[in-house]
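Cont'd.
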Amino acid sequence: MKILVCISKSPDTTSKISFTDNSTKFDENGVQFIVNPYDEWYALVRALEIKESNGGNVTIISVGSAGDEAVIRKALAIGADDAVRIDADPTDAYFTAMQIAEYAKSNGFDLVLTGKETINYNGSQVGGMIAEALDQPFVSLATKLDVNGSTLTLEREINGGLEVVEVNTPAVVSCAKGMAEQRIPNMRGIMAARTKPLNVVAAVAVDQMTTYVNYTMPNAKSACKMIDPSNMDQLVEFLHNEAKVI
Amino acid sequence: MSVLVYINSKNGLHKSAFETVTYGKKLGDVTVITTGSLSADQLATLGNYGASKVLVDRSVEGDDDQQLTRVIANAADRCSANTLIFSHDLVAKAVAPRLSVRLKAGLISGAIGIPSSDGTVPVNVFSGKAFGHVKVNSARTIISLLPNSIQPEENGSACSVEDFSGNAGSAGVKVLSTKKPEGEIPLPEAELVVSAGRGLKGPENWGMVEDLAAALGAATACSRPVADIGWRPHHEHVGQTGVAIRPNLYIAAGISGAIQHLAGVNGSKVIVVINTDPEAPFFKAADYGVIGDAFEVLPRLTEAVKKFRASNH
Ligand SMILES: Cc1cc2nc3c(=O)[nH]c(=O)nc-3n(C[C@H](O)[C@H](O)[C@H](O)COP(=O)(O)OP(=O)(O)OC[C@H]3O[C@@H](n4cnc5c(N)ncnc54)[C@H](O)[C@@H]3O)c2cc1C
């Protein structure tokens, strides 16, 4: 089975978020970048497990500039046979998805995996867009994935419950918590990642469909009102009369 | 402007449906597209929130992403919609991106408000640590609205309901079985949430959390380590790498308030923190704080809520 795993870089979860250029750009100053956790912990690790039990090939793909290769190498250290970097700034989900779909079309994969969303833009867009461009079924937010020949059996979250579904490959799946356990790369993996093939592919011309015009920060909270732990009637009273939430 | 609102009516009509119709009504003339077997009388009630018409394709029973994409695209053409609205739930996360490609329409997902005068729509970014203001560069727009972002408004009367054939085609995803926990309130849509963390010491102590949730009519949630160790199911894990929620009330007991946890819950309107440690970072993000032992405070709060509910509400 040939698997393509889409990864995105995202700021470390402890990063302080701020913006520059009149609040139009994310301030990368002093920010550590990591592989987006959903892509790494669930999509990539499950792809590797499938390869380990069924054989096949795992390719990592990311749309980004040369500076992003450090993050791609981090993903290669966990496993994967090779990586592809589409040489372009990932300006929006549509642009990014069309680049990946183009590569997938000309290289033929049985399975394309993404994380359920990135932790910076939280769009949950790229997987569904790739699936539509490839005219393949899409299983979103899968929490379990088993392969049996050309049939995939998956569990996925649905509104207020869980569903067990089956699709035939080729297909696109977005991966959520439950699918696999995070793997910590070992020294051998890190050494091997340095020499694994990382192919750079030119981007195709695609229009950007959305623009982030600017950013704002949430209003600071006013001081917290402290309530005596023995007086929960007072808390209920505040929630009812002051906050008006119950 | 013609607005098409997709509503998932498989399990009846919920608040998220009323929110999206209300939202659409603020932008233009609303047609609703839905599938399944809900009666015309029930669907007609969407008119109360501002829909002028409901189209229903009875041939589609499930949530297959390719079938829904075809039906919604055909409905959009039928009513010449230039804006499509979804509730940002699990079905929308599969279907809206497909439609974006099919209709060449820019997709704004995770919207938390209506477009402002400059045409940008506010969305959550960095898992709720900041807001982005997004515009589309295409003729058509798709907006996927986070639940609990706007209040439903009743301002109309029942509307017409029409059977519609959206040429759904065949399903690519075959559903083998469905598990639905009975009586549970889905977390992303919940208005009230009671959440607990490692401070509760073990899964056997969650009765206190469930009792308070039951007294309030709230959903339950937890911090990541609690789900990771298996004390609670994964779908209750809130935060940057779990579910992002924006309820009216979030009560957190025995949760320290790490930055990754706050990211998923700081959209809550009111936050109550119960913690033994006065230095717990969560107090900085709270509206009401109780320094105390959750094992004593939670049952006491449950009693106070029951008393309050019994007396007047
Ligand atoms: C990449 C990454 C992603 C992450 N994503 C998430 C995420 O999405 N969501 C998330 O929650 N975390 C996430 N985390 C973990 C996060 O950093 C914290 O470790 C976690 O939130 C702590 O959980 P906790 O507050 O339950 O436990 P602790 O930090 O152990 O805090 C327990 C708290 O309970 C209090 N306490 C103890 N006993 C009592 C008592 N009897 N009564 C009242 N209070 C008591 C203590 O004072 C303490 O404040 C992530 C971490 C990383 C590295």
